[in-house]
Design goal:
The complex is a heterotrimer. By secondary structure, chain B is α/β, with parallel strands linked by helices. Chain B has nine helices and ten strands. Chain B is 37% helix and 23% strand. In chain B, helix 2 packs across helix 3, helix 3 packs across helix 5 and helix 5 runs parallel beside helix 6. Chain B is globular. Chain C is α+β, with helices and mostly antiparallel strands. In chain C, the strands form four sheets. Chain C has a ten-stranded mixed β-sheet with strand order 8-9-10-1-11-16-12-15-13-14, with helices on both faces. In chain C, strands 4-5-7-6 form a four-stranded antiparallel β-sheet, covered by helices on one side. Classes of the chains: A mainly alpha, B alpha/beta, C alpha+beta. Chains in contact: A-B, A-C. At the A-C interface, helix 2, helix 3, helix 5, helix 7 and helix 11 of A face helix 1, helix 8 and helix 13 of C.
């Protein structure tokens, strides 16, 4: 029942988000100056030509009518056609970018888990020692570091100075992308990794103080087994929620990191669409991003329901 | 780790005497919360520790179980001080604890069955199937039915959780069980059942019991002797019935007054 | 050696191997070019931006070809062009072919121009307005009938926007699909589109190209939006050419990467001044004072790291029409004399707008602010995103704008229209002079000594009215790891691939 209810709530959220994003981007793009037709034709094209293109793109219709039209299309699952990539479906234009960003985010999440979970656990085990202090200081510094800064630092040292990774780019297919993905993913990890480490550390400390851990100690259960069986599973729970709630931040971080490493994800798509005022593409990206985040949250919810033994108390 | 064999999980061969002599304990550099307490739990005996909250009785319980190390003084089990008892030693399991909060006492990830089976598997050297069978039997004995055994703590009532906690303690084959306010977090209707269970099990298995409680009535129901603690010190000591009927210390008198 | 060291060395070795493996290079005939703006379709009428043009230029088969110096054209698909007052006769080379091997004849030329002239959304429509009609008199002969003399036509015919496309395709595919990058039209330029993505465009040498075959087999354009990222990639060997880097980064380049730069043959960076009555700058004396107070050497040093040159006339320094009258150094005394009796005599405040995306614009305005402070003019710098700037310019909501304009070759028509003529109100300055318009017409319609005289008169009028203040030449700075004989940027601002 809980699963059905959660899924339904998130589905409703998607509808609302879709509505807001569509209306919002439509209005926003019209509030800020800049004419898509002028962006396509350049500053030297004559006003008559610009007018003709505006008509062709439907930009000369009242805003309400344009919004109604995009909503109407959206209901049919149609994101519309691009202004710049003439005659091409928005969905087909942003689909590959979505895949790339999702891939980058997935690798970043995986790296963050690989680094953050053992790191946080270790910090909990060495609590209140110098190592713990240094570790916590390190995570604080990393968390304060903006993604683009981390990206530039990594690009400079790892790529240019040490030559350990390409200075950006993308292979276009897996597993060849692995060569390109790890450095930008690492840049994103500088944020998510420490966050996970801190969360795991705190959750592990909480678990260590619990009577069931004392009971295990009283039975003489080996330390390693206490950590593996009693501390770790409980320390992992908040991580799921943490990653889920940080999906949005991860995506916005990805946008910046993608630019630094020239990764052809949604971020690059969005920048291009914004510079040319390609309204349907901007709208499509905003929508896809928003919906992905909601879906990601749904996944988090379901995962939580599945693994968090404390949630299903009602049934 | 373990040599295997059923006796490993049974009462330790050296006998179950738990002995605390002149135990003082302070957290870090803070004031002593347990001061110069001596206590002996003979094999199979039941001792009560009574006091208000903050009297140091829970800390004393942890010292008895060996989860805390005394600042001065000694807690010995079967003649060995805790500091000499290794993690893998059978003596390590001679004193087990039952906790106040039955939910926090259980790992939320493990089902009732797994919680108990893990003890058999880990300290008894039983195979998974054997451990599971034994755990089933033991849980049945403490009143957790077959259908309930597969549930995790979130699916159990407080009383059921406490029964699982008791089963887990028993599975380790202890000589003494230290129960810290085992009923204070439970509904009144369930409290008596748990107390009865502890009483029955004690008779049946010949296990010693240290019952920590603020409630003299509860203590008198289960134990023969008791100590009364105030601010970390033992202020009165004696047979439980006498303590209840003729308290000499004003603190004990106050405690009795509060329950009447 | 400790374990840690061993691991470190191993990592470095693996990394070096991976990096080495990634290095393609010019020796296998492939060039990888990092560029920040891509065409979104292959419509020659809708890809006006410099980098879009650079790509379109490699694909488009045109009747004439632009020489890299920007000063003259040579024959392309045309074997000869017989110019006339109102009629140009173009003879095609025999046996011309599109990249798919199909024949290219006069029919295709006529169909192409008819299509462009009738396309209401063609951004280059102004290049076609003087043309009355285009007809084929036989398979190899095309006549351009003109409404008025159009001596710049040979330059126009070399533009990618005058690309010859197959007449069959125009008929078979609607306008929506004609320029779809997913299935590009057969083309007649040196390269053909092999794949057209949003982040990578791959061009393949066109074996049917009528001109000299380039030695480069494949050109891969990679979209890398951030200039620092482009620089990092050329330095790291991921690409061979980082287009349009900041001149200030030139010092960071290390061998084998070298700087490549070119000054535009036709066009300048300038301060566009709001000539409308609403602005203090409607007073020509203040405009002139600003022109005199500006330190062009300083702008070149600060903004372009010395890679450009001060602009001393309406035209680029290398243009055949240039007649310098400004000074590279500021003259504060003269500027203050000019301000006497104006509203800025004691002090005044001007709004200087610039695009937040343009590093050069951002640096220019700071120098300008400094320079004008010396003559008592306070400058308010307002940065905004490009599209917003456009809006303000059109509405006249500014006093000064750090901008510029350029054309690909040294012909006057477009550049004059945008700077001092009527096009878009002379690119937003609001300047409008019937005398200037008459002179522009004369320049555009004459040749030889007649044109020289008209240009002289126009230059004199520009000096008198000074609707805008030239600052420096337009420079494009790129970083390359391939010899300039294989890939270079020319004064046309096209990429020259050989």
């Amino acid at each position: 029942m809980l699963v059905v209810r959660t899924t339904f709530a998130r589905a409703l959220q998607i509808v609302i988000v879709g509505l807001f994003v569509t209306v919002g981007t439509n209005l926003l793009v019209r509030l800020v100056p800049g004419d898509p037709a002028r962006a396509i034709l350049g500053e030297k094209a004559s006003p008559e030509v610009v007018r003709a293109l505006r008509h062709e793109l439907g930009l000369d219709q009242p805003v309400i009518q344009q919004i109604a039209r995009s909503l109407g299309r959206l209901v049919q699952g149609d994101l519309g056609t691009s202004f710049g990539y003439r005659g091409q479906e928005v969905a087909s234009l942003i689909g590959p970018g979505l895949g790339v960003t999702a891939g980058l985010a997935a690798v970043a999440i995986a790296l963050s888990l690989v680094v953050g979970v053992p790191g946080g656990l270790w910090l909990a085990l060495v609590r209140r020692t110098e190592a713990d202090l240094i570790g916590r200081l390190g995570t604080t510094v990393l968390l304060a570091l903006p993604s683009f800064m981390a990206a530039l630092i990594l690009l400079y040292f790892v790529s240019l100075k040490l030559g350990l990774a390409p200075a950006g780019g993308w292979a276009g297919s897996w597993p060849e992308n692995a060569r390109y993905v790890w450095l930008p993913a690492l840049a994103l990890t500088t944020y998510l990794g420490p966050l996970i480490a801190r969360t795991v550390r705190q959750a592990a400390l909480d678990a260590i103080g619990q009577p069931f851990v004392e009971a295990a100690r009283a039975r003489g259960v080996p330390r390693r087994r206490i950590v593996a069986c009693h501390v770790l599973p409980n320390a992992l729970l908040p991580v799921i929620t943490l990653v889920g709630f940080n999906a949005g931040i991860l995506v916005s971080g990805a946008v910046i990191v993608e630019t630094v490493f020239a990764v052809p994800g949604l971020g690059s798509r969005l920048l291009q669409a914004m510079s040319t005022r390609d309204l349907p593409v901007m709208q499509g990206i905003a929508l896809v991003t928003a919906v992905s985040i909601v879906l990601f949250n749904l996944l988090t919810d379901l995962l939580n329901i599945a693994v968090d033994p404390r949630i299903r108390r009602t049934h | 780790m373990n040599q295997g064999g059923s006796h490993v999980c049974g009462p330790s061969p050296q006998g179950g005497t738990l002995f605390a002599s002149n135990v003082t304990f302070a957290y870090g550099s803070g004031p002593a919360v347990v001061k110069n307490v001596s206590l002996m739990v003979p094999e199979g005996a039941a001792i009560g520790i009574v006091g208000e909250s903050g009297s140091g009785k829970t800390t004393l319980a942890s010292l008895l179980v060996g989860l805390l190390t005394p600042t001065t003084g000694n807690v010995a089990v079967g003649g060995q001080p805790w500091s000499k008892v290794g993690r893998g030693s059978p003596l390590r399991r001679a004193v087990q604890m039952v906790f106040q909060n039955p939910y926090a006492a259980l790992n939320p990830h493990l089902s009732a069955l797994r919680t108990v089976a893990e003890v058999y598997q880990c300290c008894g050297g039983f195979t998974k199937t054997e451990a599971s069978e034994r755990a089933q039997a033991l849980l049945e004995r403490v009143g957790i039915s077959d259908q309930t055994q597969g549930k995790r703590p979130s699916g159990l009532s407080g009383g059921q959780c406490q029964r699982v906690g008791i089963a887990r303690a028993l599975a380790a084959g202890p000589a003494v069980i230290v129960a810290d306010e085992p009923t204070s977090a439970l509904d009144v209707s369930v409290q008596a059942q748990i107390l009865n269970l502890l009483s029955d099990l004690r008779q049946e298995q010949g296990v010693g019991l240290v019952l920590v409680s603020h409630d003299l009535n509860v203590v008198s129901y289960l134990t023969e002797r008791a100590i009364v603690m105030e601010r970390g010190e033992v202020v009165e000591e004696g047979a439980t019935t006498e303590l209840l009927q003729k308290p000499t210390h004003p603190y004990t008198q106050r405690l009795i007054a509060s329950i009447l | 050696m400790s374990m840690k060291h061993k691991a470190g060395v191993l990592l470095m070795t693996v990394g070096a191997l991976l990096t080495a493996a990634a290095h393609g290079n010019a020796s296998d005939g492939t060039l990888r070019i990092g560029i920040d703006q891509f065409p979104t379709n292959l419509d020659p009428g809708q890809n006006p931006w410099q980098q879009q043009q650079a790509i379109m230029h490699l694909i488009a088969g045109t009747l004439t070809n632009q020489e890299p110096d920007g000063k003259q054209v040579t024959m392309g698909l045309a074997a000869s062009i017989e110019p006339g007052d109102k009629r140009f006769v173009v003879k095609l080379k025999p046996d011309l072919k599109f990249s798919d091997g199909s024949a290219l004849t006069a029919t295709d030329v006529v169909a192409s121009f008819n299509y462009y002239m009738n396309d209401k959304t063609n951004g280059y429509s102004y290049t076609f307005t003087p043309i009355e009609r285009v007809i084929a008199t036989d398979d190899l002969t095309v006549e351009f009938e003109l409404k008025r003399p159009y001596p710049s036509l040979p330059f126009i015919l070399a533009l990618p926007s005058s690309e010859i496309i197959p007449s069959e395709s125009i008929e078979a595919r609607g306008s929506k699909d004609l320029y779809n990058g997913d299935h590009p039209l057969p083309a007649a330029g040196p390269f053909q589109v092999q794949s057209f993505g949003q982040d990578q465009i791959t061009l393949q040498r066109n074996s049917h190209y009528a001109g000299t075959q380039p030695s480069t087999k494949t050109v891969i354009f990679k979209k890398i939006i951030d200039p620092a990222a482009r620089l990092a990639q050329v330095q790291g060997g991921e690409i061979d050419w980082a287009d349009g880097i900041s001149p200030k980064q030139v010092g960071q380049l290390s061998a084998p990467v070298e700087v490549r730069s070119a000054l535009a043959i036709n066009g300048l960076s300038f301060l566009s001044l709001n000539n409308r009555d609403s602005s203090l700058l409607s007073d020509v004396r203040i405009r002139k004072a600003i022109a005199v107070a500006i330190n062009r050497k300083q702008i070149n040093e600060v903004v372009h790291a010395g890679q450009s040159q001060p602009a001393l006339s309406l035209w680029a320094t290398a243009s055949r029409y240039s007649r310098p009258f400004l000074s590279a150094d500021p003259d504060v005394t003269r500027a203050k004399e000019l301000l006497a009796g104006t509203k800025c005599e004691n002090a005044c405040k001007l709004k200087l707008i610039t695009s937040s995306a343009s590093e050069a614009g951002g640096d220019t305005v700071i120098v300008v602010q400094q320079n004008l402070k010396a003559i008592g003019i306070e400058v308010d710098i307002v940065k905004a995103e490009g599209a917003t700037i456009n809006e303000w310019l059109t509405q006249g909501n500014f006093d000064l704008w750090a901008g510029g304009s350029f054309d690909v070759a040294d012909f006057p028509d477009g550049y004059l229209a945008w700077t001092v003529g009527q096009a878009n109100e002379a690119l937003y300055s609001g300047y409008s002079s019937s005398e200037m318009n008459r002179l522009i017409e004369q320049v555009n319609m004459t040749t030889g000594s007649e044109r020289d005289a008209a240009v002289a008169a126009l230059n004199a009028l520009f000096e008198k009215d000074l609707p805008l203040v030239p600052t420096t030449n337009i420079v494009s700075v790129s970083a390359s790891r391939v010899p300039s004989e294989i890939l270079n940027i020319s004064p046309t601002m096209y990429l020259e691939v050989r």
